[in-house]
Amino acid sequence: MMLLRAEDAKDWFYKGEGAANIVLGYCGSSLSLVGKVLRIQKVAKGRSRSPNGCFVLSNHERLVWRDIGELLECTSKDAAARAFIQHVMSNLLDSKHVDAGILVHVSKEFLEAVEGNIKSQRPPWRISQISRYDPLDLFSGLKDRIHLAITALFACPQNNFRIFFNGSLIFGGLGGGLDNTVVQSHKAEEAIVDLISPSGLQLASFLELVAEAIFGSGILDKLLETQQLDVLDIEGAIHVYYNIISQPCAICKNLIDAELLHQYSFLHSLSLEESLKIVRGYLIAATAKDCSLMISFSCTEAGHNASDCNSASLKSSNQCYNYKACFIDLDLKTLEKMVHYYKLDQKIVDFYKTSGEIEGNPSILEVEAHLEKKN
């Protein structure tokens, strides 16, 4: 297995980051690494990684994933993440659209050198505009509405839309925020047009091409199906979480609403098997809701398609493109994270209630009727 040392740090540059990982691009001379990226997982200060040789899943997580033998045997978090992608997400999202990647060892000195190299390149986190992007458009299955969603994402990319040209970021802001180089949309458009115009592709056609690839591939259909494995949302799933860990429900003990307590008592009466199924679906759906979609394009002649690519043609420019679409950031969500998701959900609800956007209590799923329908 490859090992990256301190002297290799100069060959990697900052490409972007999310809440959990920093992504580096390769600028060295090794042919096996050209075009590749390196995802480095963030670890909170004062928090250590699991020691090598120990199983990384907790006893309760081993119950949830007990049907995935390869996952149970993993002794590192990275190996578990890869096994989860290979044996769970690939089956749900279609293996041709999923790449589990390969594990690369890095030395402590490499990480320290990289940190020093990229420190000045990491942008401040900020959102400077309100986006008009509507996920319902993107997942509608209608080409016009998908195009509308892509156009809205381009108008206000935040941390949701980036454009790379030959591996270099040309639009979207490193780390998600709109940095000063692209904060004015007309400057961004000029930069993109300058880069893509040699191929004869105009900006409007480029956005049309992205929409055509998403629509033609049907790739979001599988993603939506996977997201819908969350049948109860966190407000219901948190109760069966307490069934699995065999502890009194921290939510119910603070409730005084008799009707809610009755509804939730049904969830607490579910068998362990039913509880495991609900939580497993919730965690898989959480991964599907938090992943990214990467689409790469190359211009080609009509009828000359690469064997591993799909093709899309644009009537407006009479051009044909090969493209590959792949899901990334398919990280395994930990079981204990469900408590965090519930607290976050309640903060969102409280914000809307106090801001006057909604009145009264948010609606509660009719969980008993819903589960009866599913069975």
What is the strand and helix layout of this fold?
Elements: E1 3-4, E2 12-17, E3 21-26, E4 37-41, H1 59-64, H2 69-72, H3 77-93, E5 105-106, H4 108-118, H5 135-138, H6 143-155, E6 163-165, E7 168-171, H7 185-196, H8 203-217, H9 219-227, H10 233-245, H11 258-268, H12 272-289, E8 292-300, E9 310-314, E10 319-328, H13 337-355, H14 367-374
Parallel strand pairs: 1-5
Antiparallel strand pairs: 2-3, 3-4, 6-7, 8-10, 9-10
Helix pairs in contact: 6-8, 9-12, 10-12, 10-13
Structure description:
It is an enzyme of class 2 (transferase). It catalyses: 1D-myo-inositol 1,3,4,5,6-pentakisphosphate + ATP = 1D-myo-inositol hexakisphosphate + ADP + H(+). With 375 residues, the protein is of the alpha+beta class. It folds into three domains: 3-121, 2-Layer Sandwich (Phosphorylase Kinase, domain 1); 135-217 and 291-328, no CATH class; 224-288 and 336-374, no CATH class. It has 14 helices and ten strands. The protein has helices at 59-64, 69-72, 77-93, 108-118, 135-138, 143-155, 185-196, 203-217, 219-227, 233-245, 258-268, 272-289, 337-355, 367-374; strands at residues 3-4, 12-17, 21-26, 37-41, 105-106, 163-165, 168-171, 292-300, 310-314, 319-328. The protein has a three-stranded antiparallel sheet with strand order 2-3-4, with helices on one face. Strands 8-10-9 form a three-stranded antiparallel sheet. Strands 1-5 form a two-stranded parallel sheet. Strand 9 and strand 10 (319-328) form a beta hairpin. Helix 6 (143-155) crosses helix 8 (203-217) and helix 9 crosses helix 12.
